[in-house]
C-alpha cells in the first residue's frame, strides 16, 4: 500500500489521469504473458517522457518502492509480474519514432512503440529492421530490448542485441544516462549498451533507443520440407549449415504442432508427418534460387517426404503467419499453455528433440515442440491445466529435466525469452555460482536499493541439479 | 620489487624457464605499440594453461600485485603498459586452436593465437572470420577481444564483439568462469561475454574463446576512386550507404597519406589527389558486379577524377596491403607517430576531416588522416618527434580538440583502439560522470583489489572540456 503523500507526488508528476490505483488497473497489471503467475502492484503509472521517468524514479528510490517497467507484457518468463508489489510503469505513451536517419541508416525510438508498427514504418522507407519476435504485433521495442528478443530471422540476421547501438536510460536514482550513439564502432569504456540489452528491467528503465537499420533483401523464397522421420528433419538443419548456407529462417514444427497449426490456419498440411521445416532464404534473386535449390537437394537426401516452394508471396506469408501462430494455436488445446525456450548448439537439435519426447513420455505430459531450429532455439510447449495441481507438478518436473538436458548438450536455459521469475532457479546451472555472484555485483552497482524489478533473474534459492554431471 | 617468496611461488607454478625478471625481459615488456609510454614491470610470466593462470592469480591477489595480461602488445592506447608495475602475463604459449566445429560453424581458441594465423587456418577449411585489425599479422585473438578490435571489414561484417559468443576467463580471485557457449542465442542473465569484450584486461584474464564463423563470400571486387575534392570523397561515402549498399570495405586516405603510402608501396598512385577511397564488395558475383557498377556511378556523380577496378586478385591484394601499411608508411616520415581513432556517425565524415585539418593547421602540426570511412572511424595520425617537448604539447592540444570535435559531431573518442592510458582523461566526455561511476562499479565487482591492469580506462582526473557545449 502506498501512502497518500507518495501517490500525490506521483500524480503531480504525470497528472491525475496517468496514475491509477483502482482495483481494475491493479489487476490488469498483475500478470503478463506467462501463465500461473500473478501479483498485485500498488499503482500503475504512465509517463510521457524521460524527465517524468526520472522524477518518478527519484520519488520511488527515496521511498524504496519497487518499479516494474513494462511494454505490452508479452514476455513468457514472468518478467513483468510485480512480485514484490510497487509501481508498474507502462511505457505505451512514449511510443514515438523520433528520427529515421537515412544517411546513417539509424532510427531513434521511444520504448513504447509497437515492434510491428516500427518495422512497417521502416519498410515503407525502404529499410529493414530484422528482429521479429512472434509477439511483434503487440510487443514493444522497449520490451524487446529488455528481453533481448529473437525471432524467426535470428539465424541469419541476429537478434535485438545486434541492432541496438545506443540507449538512453533512467537509473534507479533517477539519473539519466546515455550509452553508445549513431556509431558503428565505439569502444569508449565497457559496453553498457549490450549489458543493458536483455537485463530484463533490473538495471535501468529504457527511455530511448538508437537502432541500426540495414538494406532490405531484394528477394525471398519460402519452402516447406516435410519428413516422416523426425531425425531426418533435425539432421537436415545441421546439414544445410554445414553446407555453408545460412537461411533467413529455418523453423521446425513437430507432429502435434503441425496438427494444431493446420487446424487453426487451415493450410491443408499432411497430418502424418513427424516434422516440417519451414525454410526461407532472402538476398539477391540469383543466390536465393541457388540456395533454395541446394536446400531442396539436402532435404531430399535426408529422405524428406515432400518439398514444396511457395509459388507466391501470399502463399509464403500464409506459411510464415501459420508458424507464428503456433503458440496461439496450441493455446486452444487445453486451458494452460506453458512455452519454454531451451536452446542447444544447432548440431544437437535431433538429440534435444529426442530428449524432450523421452521426458514428456516419462512424466506423462503433452509437450509439442516447435521453434527456431537453425539457432538451436526450441520451444517445447506443454498444454496442460493450471487447476490440476498434480499434473502441473509433472509438467514442472518435465521442464526441469528439459533444462538439464539442454545444459548437458552444451545449451542454455533460455535462448530468447529471458530468465524472469520462471527460470531464476535454474540460472546457476548455466552460469555457475561465480557467474551469479558477478551478475549480482553488477545489479548492486546499478540498483543498490534493489527497487528495479526485484525478484527477477536471481532466485532466493537455486534448484539443485537432478542429474549428475559426468562431463 | 617482488620478494623472493612470491617469485618462488610463481616459478613453482610455471617452471623456472617461464618466469623472468632479468632487466632485458622487464624492458622488453615495459612498452607496447603506443609511443612515449613506458613503465617497468616487476616480472614477466608465460602460463601454459588456464589452471596455471588461475594459480598465478591466486598468488597475485593474495599479495595485491598488479597483473597485466597481454598478447603481442600491438595496441595503440597504452593498454598494456605496466604503469603500476606488477607482473606482465604473456599469453603466447596458450596459442592453440582447440576445435573447429564444422556443424555449428564455431571455433574454440586459446587467446595467444596470432589473428592472421587463425584466419588462414579457418579460410583453408572454407570458412570465414571477418575481424581483421591492421595489426593482424602480429596481434593475438586474445588481444583483439580485450580491445574489441575492428578492421577493414567492420562496415559490413561488424567487429570482434560480433564474433565472440563464449569465453572462459580467470577472475582476479583466481576463479575460473565460463560465459556463453556454442549458442547463437543465449539470454541466461546479463551478457557477460559482451561486457568482457573490450574491457581491456581490467575485468578478467581471457583464457579461451568460442568464436562464430560464417560462410565466406564467393567473390569479391576491389576498386579505387580518386578525388581532387576532399569533400566529394567524403560525400561519396554517405551516398553509397544512403543508396542501400554496404560495401565490405570502404577506406579513406587523404593526400599526405596517399603520398607516403605510394612512396612505401610503389603503386604509382596520382599524388595530386585530395583523397582516395578504396572500396571492396564481396558476395555472389551478380550482386557484387551490380554494386560495383552502382558505386562507380555514385563516385562519378560526386566528381571523382578517376575510378578504377582492380583487374586481378593480385592487384586487389596489393591495394589492400598498401592501405594496411598506412601506419607503417607514415611511421617512416618522422621519429614519432601518434595514431588516433576518433569516430563519428558516417554522415559526418566530411565535417570531421575538415575539423581535423583546421585543428592541425591551428596548432601547426602535421596530421595525416586515413581510416575506415564507412564506419566513420578515422585515424588522424600525427607525425612528430617525441624529443621536441614543445611540439608534442601542440600535438596533444590538437588531439584534445579532435576528440572534442568528434564528441560534438555525435561521435566517440575511440572506435576500435580502446581507452587504455591515452584516452582515459577524455572518457568522461563520451560517457558522462554517471557512465564512469557505473563502469567503476562494474570494475569493483570483478576486481575489488584493483590488481587487473590498474591505471587503465579510468583516469585519476578527467580533462576539462575546452569547448563549450552549445547543444
UniProtKB/TrEMBL annotation, chains A, B:
KW Oxidoreductase (keyword) present: yes
Protein name according to UniProt: FAD-binding oxidoreductase
Key words, A-Z: FAD, Flavoprotein, Oxidoreductase
PROSITE patterns: FAD_PCMH
Residue stretches spanning the membrane: none
Domain of life: Bacteria
PANTHER family referenced in this protein's UniProt entry, alphabetically: GLYCOLATE OXIDASE SUBUNIT GLCD
Coiled-coil blocks: none
Organism in which the protein naturally occurs: Paenibacillus solisilvae
Entry keyword Flavoprotein: yes
Signal peptide: none
Amino acid at each position: 500500500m502506498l501512502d497518500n503523500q507518495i501517490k500525490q507526488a506521483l500524480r503531480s508528476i504525470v497528472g491525475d489521469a496517468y496514475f491509477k490505483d483502482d482495483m481494475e488497473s491493479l489487476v490488469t497489471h498483475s500478470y503478463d504473458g506467462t501463465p500461473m503467475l500473478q501479483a498485485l502492484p500498488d499503482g500503475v503509472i504512465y509517463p510521457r517522457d524521460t524527465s517524468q521517468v526520472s522524477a518518478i524514479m527519484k520519488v520511488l528510490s527515496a521511498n524504496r518502492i519497487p518499479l516494474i517497467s513494462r511494454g505490452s507484457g508479452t514476455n513468457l518468463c514472468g518478467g513483468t509480474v510485480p512480485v514484490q508489489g510497487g509501481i508498474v510503469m507502462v511505457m505505451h505513451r512514449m511510443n514515438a519514432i523520433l528520427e529515421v536517419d537515412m544517411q546513417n541508416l539509424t532510427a531513434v525510438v521511444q520504448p513504447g512503440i509497437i515492434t510491428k508498427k516500427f518495422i512497417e514504418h521502416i519498410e515503407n522507407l525502404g529499410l529493414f529492421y530484422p528482429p521479429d519476435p512472434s509477439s511483434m504485433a503487440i510487443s514493444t521495442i522497449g520490451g524487446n530490448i529488455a528481453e533481448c528478443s529473437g525471432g524467426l530471422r535470428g539465424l541469419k540476421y541476429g537478434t535485438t542485441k545486434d541492432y541496438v547501438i545506443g540507449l538512453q536510460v533512467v537509473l534507479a536514482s533517477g539519473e539519466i544516462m546515455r550509452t553508445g550513439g549513431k556509431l558503428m564502432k565505439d569502444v569508449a569504456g565497457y559496453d553498457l549498451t549490450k549489458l543493458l540489452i536483455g537485463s530484463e528491467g533490473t538495471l535501468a528503465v529504457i527511455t530511448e533507443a538508437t537502432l541500426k537499420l540495414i538494406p532490405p533483401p531484394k528477394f525471398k523464397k519460402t519452402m516447406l520440407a516435410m519428413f516422416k522421420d523426425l531425425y531426418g528433419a533435425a539432421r537436415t538443419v545441421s546439414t544445410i549449415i554445414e553446407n555453408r548456407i545460412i537461411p533467413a529462417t529455418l523453423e521446425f514444427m513437430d507432429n502435434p504442432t503441425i496438427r494444431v497449426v493446420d487446424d487453426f490456419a487451415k493450410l491443408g498440411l499432411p497430418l502424418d508427418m513427424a516434422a516440417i521445416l519451414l525454410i526461407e532464404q532472402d538476398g539477391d534473386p540469383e543466390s536465393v534460387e541457388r540456395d533454395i535449390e541446394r536446400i531442396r537437394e539436402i532435404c531430399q537426401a535426408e529422405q524428406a517426404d515432400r518439398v514444396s516452394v511457395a509459388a507466391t508471396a501470399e502463399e509464403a506469408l500464409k506459411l510464415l503467419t501459420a508458424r507464428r501462430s503456433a503458440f496461439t494455436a496450441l493455446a486452444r488445446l487445453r486451458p494452460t499453455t506453458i512455452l519454454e525456450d531451451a536452446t542447444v548448439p544447432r548440431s544437437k537439435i535431433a538429440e534435444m528433440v529426442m530428449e524432450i519426447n523421452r521426458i514428456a513420455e516419462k512424466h506423462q505430459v503433452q509437450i509439442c515442440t516447435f521453434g527456431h531450429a537453425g539457432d538451436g532455439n526450441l520451444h517445447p510447449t506443454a498444454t496442460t491445466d493450471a487447476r490440476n495441481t498434480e499434473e502441473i507438478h509433472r509438467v514442472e518436473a518435465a521442464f526441469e529435466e528439459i533444462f538439464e538436458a539442454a545444459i548437458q548438450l552444451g545449451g542454455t536455459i533460455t535462448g530468447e525469452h529471458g530468465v524472469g521469475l520462471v527460470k531464476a532457479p535454474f540460472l546457476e546451472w548455466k552460469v555457475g555460482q561465480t557467474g551469479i555472484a558477478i551478475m549480482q555485483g553488477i545489479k548492486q552497482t546499478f540498483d543498490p536499493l534493489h527497487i528495479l524489478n526485484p525478484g527477477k533473474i536471481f532466485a532466493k534459492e537455486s534448484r539443485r541439479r537432478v542429474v549428475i554431471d559426468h562431463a
